[in-house]
Design a protein that fits this description.
Strand content: under 5%
Distance between the termini: 70 Å
Shape: elongated
Mean pLDDT: 86
Structural class: mainly alpha
Low-confidence stretches: none
Helix content: over 70%
Number of helices: 4
Oligomer: single chain
Length: 138
């Protein structure tokens, strides 16, 4: 590949890197909003349910479904983030000017840091248990 081709390839990969990092940020923001909306929706349901006079207990499955679907969607976002991260590690290796492969995704991979997975699992697991309790106790 000639020098112009190399410069064009580097420019393309830099733009691709920036775009993918932006997508990761958007996915993280999306999951945080999903958490807020799920809690808000479940709280609104319980407020409505408690305020109603006679409703079937089977309706208590709705908050559990909301929590379960939110967890599923959040897991899909995390899977996408991990796919992007794996590719970014490869790009960081290509752009490393020294033998040290520096870059956030490479650092994260080497240190096995995954607070997003831990906090997401704790949040959705707790929400599912809390919303399952009324359904299971009746």
């Amino acid at each position: 590949m000639d020098k112009e081709g190399q410069i064009a390839a580097v420019g393309f990969h830099l733009k691709e890197y920036e775009s993918l990092k932006q997508e990761v940020s958007e996915q993280v923001e999306h999951t945080r909003k999903l958490e807020i909306y799920a809690v808000g929706g479940i709280a609104a349901f319980y407020a409505w349910y408690i305020g109603a006079t006679t409703l079937p207990h089977e309706l208590l499955i709705i908050p559990l479904l909301l929590a379960s679907l939110g967890a599923w969607r959040s897991g899909a976002a995390l899977k996408r983030i991990n796919e992007i991260a794996a590719y970014l590690v490869q790009l960081e290796g290509v752009f490393a000017l020294t033998g040290d492969k520096l870059g956030w995704e490479t650092h994260r991979k080497n240190n096995r840091s995954s607070p997003f997975l831990l906090s997401g699992t704790a949040f959705w697991g707790t929400l599912i248990l809390v919303t399952a309790a009324p359904w299971l106790l009746l």
